[in-house]
Amino acid sequence: MTLFNDDRYNWRETYFVCFESTHRPTLPGVRQALKRHIPFLEILACQADEHENLTLLTAASYEDHAAMEIIYREGNDILDESKHLYHTWSTEATAAERVQLEKMVHCRTRFDVHHFEQTAATGVFNITKLPEIKFSAQSAAVPEHKDIFSKALALDKKPFHFDSDSYKRCRCGPSAEIPDASGMDETHGMENGECERINPEMLVKVLGILCRISRGIALDPASGIVLD
After folding, report:
1. Is 23 helix (H, G, I), strand (E, B) or coil?
2. What's the pLDDT at 190?
3. CB–CB of 219/15 below 8 Å?
């Protein structure tokens, strides 16, 4: 299974890390970099191809109430999406951002970095009760992820955008003291009596590491925000 069908996690957002295929990083290289720069990160599961190139990796930071799934993708569909993203966001980008976006136009390979929030169902985030997440044989094809790109760009449903302030807001149930409405995350609101907090530190660090290793760029496809 993947985090998408794990009821202990809620999907928050997806970032793309686009890079040239010649710079595809290996699983050992990514693991070493993650452990070196994010020692509190727990790698739960991972997969590589016959050349040890990273295919799938799931990691969690329990103290940040966050987890992520990194999935390698390649092919003409990725190239078409890269071109579409460039034409979508280049007119609104700064000169420096356009330089970065131009690197993406010819990219047929990328990582989809799915960011998840731990839910109250994890037992107050007690890590000793969290079993390892295992990928099924079908995970390599990742069929459930095919529509992430279209959903992120859909106009009829506003996706969650990266906003560090929104992670600090707590959503509380009916039995708790209700904060001022201006401080609530309107994307999620109040539901099911849960009170959740998430720290974006892991996401930012992982994106930075992947960019450095692959010499690529990270992009939020829903907002056009570029990180390199």
Report:
1. helix
2. 37
3. yes
User: Could you tell me the mean pLDDT of each successive run of 10 residues in the chain, 228 residues long?
Assistant: 76 94 96 93 93 95 89 94 91 88 91 89 48 45 47 42 37 30 37 56 92 94 84
Q: What is the DSSP letter of 53?
A: B
Would you say 207 and 19 are in contact if contact means Cβ atoms under 8 Å apart? no
Q: Which residues contact 140 (CB under 8 A, 6 or more apart)?
A: 47, 55, 56
90: tokens are 């280049």
CB 30 within 8 A of CB 213: yes
193: left (phi over 0), alpha (psi -120 to 50) or beta: left
CA distances from 152 to 49, 77, 180, 192, 223 (A): 28, 16, 29, 25, 9
The whole-number pLDDT of residue 26 equals 97
pLDDT at 70: 96
If one counts every other C-beta atom within 10 angstroms of the C-beta of residue 26, the result is: 15
Predicted TM-score (pTM) of the model is 0.69
